């Protein structure tokens, strides 16, 4: 299906994609945003339920409110870390929301497809897992477009529902900041901050049964 060059390009994007927190205010052309969203919409979904929606946020007023929600939760979480690690946690710029020209709230609708969706009847979490596939497609597409993307994962869902007027049954899965950047690191930010190291793949693979190498 793919030439050697095309195959290598896919792996290059996978290995070089990063979670970014520093953005330029440079506007993103609408056709590029549409391509990224179309890539997300072509993600696999269990039972072909396609549970996602995308709220595009560009106004400073709403970005400020989202940043407030993220900052509030990050400080609440910081109490769980001691000493230097706590400071590293607070110093990591987790919101990026006020800088990026656009933030996308990716939501999951657990009612999409009705009460009987192939696969979801057995494993209800497959709607969220399907939405995560759409987010990964967004990340790879953004990287291929030369854009940076940051997943903001610290907030109370009800805060986001209130700010964006999301119905109570809809799950706000992620706040995604997208923009151009001058700081695209060679390694993940948390790895550079010595927060954690990448685990060895060989220790994560078992044969036939759990724990069996």
Structure at a glance:
The protein has 213 residues and is α+β, with helices and mostly antiparallel strands. It has helices at residues 4-16, 30-41, 60-78, 83-91, 126-144, 157-164, 189-192, and strands spanning 52-57, 102-108, 148-152, 171-179. Helices cover 39% and strands 13% of the residues.
Please characterize this protein's 3D structure.
With 213 residues, the chain is α+β, with helices and mostly antiparallel strands. It is built from 7 helices and 4 strands. The chain has helices spanning 4-16, 30-41, 60-78, 83-91, 126-144, 157-164, 189-192; strands at residues 52-57, 102-108, 148-152, 171-179. The chain has a 4-stranded antiparallel sheet with strand order 1-2-4-3, sandwiched between helices. Helix 2 (30-41) runs antiparallel to helix 5 (126-144) and helix 3 (60-78) runs antiparallel to helix 6. The mean pLDDT is 91. Keywords: Flavoprotein, FMN, Oxidoreductase. GO terms for molecular function: 5,6-dimethylbenzimidazole synthase activity.
Strand numbers in spatial order across the main sheet: 1-2-4-3
* DSSP helical segment count: 7
Categorize the overall geometry: globular
CA-CA gap between termini:
33 Å
The poorly predicted ranges are none
Strand share of the residues?
A: 5-15%
- Secondary structural class: alpha+beta
Extended strand count: 4
Mean pLDDT: 91
SSE sequence, one letter per element: HHEHHEHEHEH
Main sheet summary: 4 strands, antiparallel
GO molecular function: 5,6-dimethylbenzimidazole synthase activity
EC number: 1.13.11.79
Keywords: Flavoprotein, FMN, Oxidoreductase
Protein name: 5,6-dimethylbenzimidazole synthase
């Amino acid at each position: 299906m793919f030439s050697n060059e095309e195959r290598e390009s896919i792996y290059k994007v996978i290995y070089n994609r990063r979670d970014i927190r520093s953005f330029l205010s440079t506007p993103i052309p609408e056709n590029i945003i549409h391509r990224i969203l179309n890539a997300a919409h072509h993600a696999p979904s269990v039972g072909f339920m396609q549970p996602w929606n995308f709220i595009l946020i560009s106004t400073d007023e709403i970005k400020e409110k989202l940043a407030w929600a993220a900052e509030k939760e990050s400080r609440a979480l910081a109490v769980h870390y001691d000493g230097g690690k706590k400071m590293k946690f607070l110093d990591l710029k987790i919101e990026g929301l006020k800088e990026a020209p656009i933030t996308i709230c990716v939501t999951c609708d657990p009612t999409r497809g009705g009460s009987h969706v192939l696969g979801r009847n057995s494993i209800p979490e497959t709607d969220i897992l399907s939405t995560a596939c759409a987010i990964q497609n967004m990340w790879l597409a953004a990287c291929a477009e030369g854009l940076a993307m940051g997943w903001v994962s610290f907030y109370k869902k009800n805060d986001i529902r209130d700010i964006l007027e999301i119905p109570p049954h809809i799950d706000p899965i992620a706040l995604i900041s997208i923009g151009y950047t001058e700081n695209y690191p060679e390694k993940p930010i948390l790895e550079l901050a010595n927060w954690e190291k990448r685990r060895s793949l060989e220790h994560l693979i078992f044969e036939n049964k759990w724990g069996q190498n």
